[in-house]
């Protein structure tokens, strides 16, 4: 049984059809990559799934509940938690307090939440940075804090929106390793990336979007040799 | 040893409480005692306002409405149906909290400036209502009937009991604010202030928690209003619901340090004596001189030290510590000559 299921999801902005009849599902325990060229509609789809935008048509099912049109905070408390492409750290709060905000979602008691937050900080290897202010973190650490914060909420599905954009090669390797460890904890992961090098070794399944529509779906090696995907990425001239 | 450690950690608070308790023994004139009481009332207002604005990031410029609700509720209950103010003072916060909650439901659909404008309008509406409401005294206001020294009526013929009640009021507000700030709500307030969208992504119902901050803030403000009415023994719409009143809460908190637990007290300690002394010594001719002086102060702080007096103090302390640091490093280099070049380099950096 699938954990997340999108059926015919469409979203239009004025004249632009950002999501065109997108249908797919994600099973428990998977790491699913969503790729596509810039402007393909990946982030819009992410927003429609997590409740930050309401789809114009179609349904989203999560853990067998129809969550189409639910408020984003409600979807988060149900267990689908996202991070942001451009990091949204609480800049005037310390790393620990940032993660605490996540931990308090399921643990109203501050002391209990503190333990959960420390665990998430340890898991994401941010220990020793507890008292650094959000505003003085590096890009890589900001991304890590966002992941720690999301993990502290105890999600069943983690939605990472370009969690690796802007990282250097070493940091990317660490981040890939982190996503694997998250999956090993039993958390299903869906990640948006437009870098093939990240998606290919990491994902168990890949979804490809172009011009708002899903154009391919399959194992990374299948996707890499799919002519439609090559055309979307490299242009018509490479068709032959 | 445990107590010594606790004392060292809370030295500032302990000194403050001790000073506050003996304050009437040192300040022996009625005017100085009046100043202390006003400082405490305004510090309470700043503390309540700070929870909504400094922590949750929602700028209200209409808190005079809640102060007025507190003052009018206790006075009307006493004048019209004879409920003694010691009981009536508790009705104000309940009413103010209800009004804030009901207002908050639509108002928190607005964000940023639009919320602030709506709060200004709310206080103006209160001001117009009470100015034209003859039963509640209208523009002439209401006098609280005198009862002599009576704790039940919260009336005293000397300033000292008022002082201790004001201290209790301020202590309560700081305690409540501190409890709230260190609870789940406090974390959520700061998260909402820093980034509402990220807060939502972590399951926070931001309208609900903004309403919590607004309701809490309104209740404390109304309690202060109730106390003020029974201290001054005269209330009118102009002195509490006019824009000047709401603005002053903002001014003193910003001057002291917005978002800091002790900011409002420090701001009130500077501004209220300034305002009261210019009013007393310049009387009619000096009207609004106080506003001129601290208007300039606010501008200066907004430009040079947005964290207010408390931020300035912390900066000075940090600089003093850093000035001490090279001296310590120098001693270390004397003790360990071989590593000297590295150490001096570090000392110079710091």
Kindly summarize this structure in a few lines:
Chain A is an alpha/beta fold and 240 residues long. Chain A contains nine helices and ten strands. Chain A has helices at 42-50, 72-78, 95-103, 110-123, 139-152, 169-184, 196-202, 220-224, 227-234, and strands at 2-13, 16-27, 31-35, 57-62, 65-66, 80-82, 157-161, 188-192, 205-210, 213-218.
Secondary-structure map:
The complex is a heterodimer of chains A (240) and B (350).
Chain A: E1 2-13, E2 16-27, E3 31-35, H1 42-50, E4 57-62, E5 65-66, H2 72-78, E6 80-82, H3 95-103, H4 110-123, H5 139-152, E7 157-161, H6 169-184, E8 188-192, H7 196-202, E9 205-210, E10 213-218, H8 220-224, H9 227-234
Chain B: H1 2-9, H2 11-26, H3 30-55, H4 64-81, H5 85-107, H6 113-132, E1 142-143, H7 159-181, H8 184-194, H9 196-201, H10 206-232, E2 234-235, H11 237-241, H12 243-256, H13 263-282, H14 289-304, H15 308-335, H16 340-349
Antiparallel strand pairs in B: 1-2
Main sheet: strands, sense, barrel of chain A = 6 strands, mixed
**Can you count the helices of chain B?**
16
Assigned CATH architecture of the largest domain in chain A:
3-Layer(aba) Sandwich
Q: Which structural category fits the helices and strands of chain A?
A: alpha/beta
Describe the sheet with the most strands of chain B. 2 strands, antiparallel
Can you write the helix and strand succession of chain B as a string? HHHHHHEHHHHEHHHHHH
* SSE class of chain B: mainly alpha
The level of helicity of chain A is 25-40%
Q: Which protein chains are joined by the largest interface, and how many residues does each one contribute?
A: A-B, 31 and 21 residues
Unreliable stretches of chain B (pLDDT < 50, length at least 5) are: 329-350
